[in-house]
Amino acid sequence: MQLKDTVALVTGGTAGLGLATARRLVAAGARVVVMGRSPETGRAAAARLGPQAVFVAGDVTDDDAVGRVLDAAEELGELRSLVCCAGTTYSKQILGRRVMRLDEFEAVVRTNLIGTFNVVRQAVVRIAAQPLVEEDRGVVITTSSIAAWDGQSGQSAYAASKAAIAGMALPLARELAPHAIRVVDIAPGLFDTRLMQAVPERAVEQLRGQLPHPKRLGAADEFAALAEHVIGNSMLNGESVRLDAGLRMAPI
Ligand SMILES: NC(=O)c1ccc[n+]([C@@H]2O[C@H](COP(=O)([O-])OP(=O)(O)OC[C@H]3O[C@@H](n4cnc5c(N)ncnc54)[C@H](O)[C@@H]3O)[C@@H](O)[C@H]2O)c1
């Protein structure tokens, strides 16, 4: 699907992988709505992206906020692409002195899984109403993680939320196929963003040592390049694509 003169919504588009994706989509000629929670960070991000981008504040778990963001996207033109990058990480054991509380587990699942589903379910109603252009009416990209398969000790909440996101790609793609809307999940490995800075340095070093090739953290623009490709390549559908330099995380 061509991006030029279409509208894309990028959740978590004010930082990290989402911001890099918004930058790519703008460069490809799309008008982009970036959604995030902090108005300050969001406005600064939109200013850097230029006149083709607007920031709309909102939390992905908030129904009404997502509706308002989608209204803003439709004001810009034909909404065709959704890239879900909003997410959080969290790590805590379930046995020991400082154990993960139930509300902490729920909060991670709520942001990552329910937040993603909330945006997808509302966005596809709008995308499905667009006229068909060539083969596709639109594309949905979700972001899981290789932790969906290779989660570390302490990552039960994060890994569960990400495994569920990866698990939605095929059933959503099957459901949305009659509407010519594709759904593709991207499962990043280790990327150099603020989220990765929350991981203890020793753990990052140990994981870096396990990388087959290249032995470095990915750059956010490398994620963005894949997101752009997914939108353009109509044969990609119902799949979770690992973007991980061949990493299969062993326990650390
Ligand atoms: N960086 C990595 O190595 C890596 C690896 C695997 C998966 N991921 C996933 O990629 C996605 C993007 O991560 P990143 O590395 O760019 O992190 P990041 O922290 O730089 O960006 C995440 C963005 O999501 C936003 N966000 C968080 N909760 C939100 C909510 N409830 N509503 C709206 N926005 C919200 C944040 O404000 C931020 O802008 C996340 O889902 C993350 O789990 C990242």
Automatic annotation (TrEMBL):
One of its GO terms (molecular function) is oxidoreductase activity. PROSITE patterns: ADH_SHORT (PS00061). Keywords: Oxidoreductase. Pfam families: adh_short (PF00106). It comes from the Bacteria. The keyword Metal-binding does not apply. Residues 6-189 form the Ketoreductase domain. SUPFAM superfamilies: NAD(P)-binding Rossmann-fold domains. PANTHER family: 17-BETA-HYDROXYSTEROID DEHYDROGENASE 14-RELATED (PTHR43658:SF8), SHORT-CHAIN DEHYDROGENASE/REDUCTASE (PTHR43658). Belongs to the short-chain dehydrogenases/reductases (SDR) family. This is KR domain-containing protein. It comes from Actinacidiphila bryophytorum.
